Automatic annotation (TrEMBL):
It comes from Adineta steineri. The keyword Isomerase applies. Belongs to the hyi family. This is Putative hydroxypyruvate isomerase. InterPro entries: HyI-like (IPR026040), Sugar_Epim/Isomerase (IPR050417), Xyl_isomerase-like_sf (IPR036237), Xyl_isomerase-like_TIM-brl (IPR013022). One of its GO terms (molecular function) is hydroxypyruvate isomerase activity.
Amino acid sequence: MRFCANISTLFNDIPKLTERYIHVLQRKDYRFDAIECQNPYDISVNEWKELISNNKSLKWILINSLPLFNQTNEIPSFIEYQQLVLNRTLDYAKALNVNKVHLVMTDANNDSDRCKIIDLVYQAAEFFQPHRIMCLIEPLSIRLNYYLQSYSMAIDIVKSSKTDNLKIMLDSYHLQRLHGNLTERVKEMIPFVGHVQISQTPNRDCPVNEDGEVNHRYFLSKLIKPFYQDFIGLEYNDSSTASMTWLNEFSITD
């Protein structure tokens, strides 16, 4: 198994994302080959480019789009959505050479809103397809009215897509909070998953913390490993002093 450090949540005692990037390179207890990031927009494209040119050993796997709920209180037209979110997201995706973008959308007050948002998702996938970028949708358990709060609905959305670059973000934290029954839910999602992230429930801390609801050793070894060979995102909260040695038991050579 291969893991990428989410520099938006890990090492949260280090204030700046670029400093966290350097910290990943300098870790001694686990050698990371890749990272992902929710909010690369806090740093300018040029600053990222300069940092990457001097430190080329880390691969960027995933970034989030600019969250639509932070850009407007309305559900925009696609042209407006492209201007508010997609153009800048694409600029960063190209600069960082990522091939996965999590489409962070907005809240829905009714079924009409939800349908409009889903239509934006489909158009966004078409927008990114020529650039060979996979779009990911993720049910969220932490926003009360978020348009997507069901993995079953996420499957239906992906099934109905006219493009092949729309997939599901499988996050063990949200999956447990929204549904539980991880074994059956994962089996149901296997054909539709484009990326996996992990963290313990309910505190979004280290996945193998035993003071939590999910046995991630079972989750990773029995459910994820048989069908998913790409990087697994470590999207959990921890400081730079926390040990990463637990990752070695899930080495790619196992």
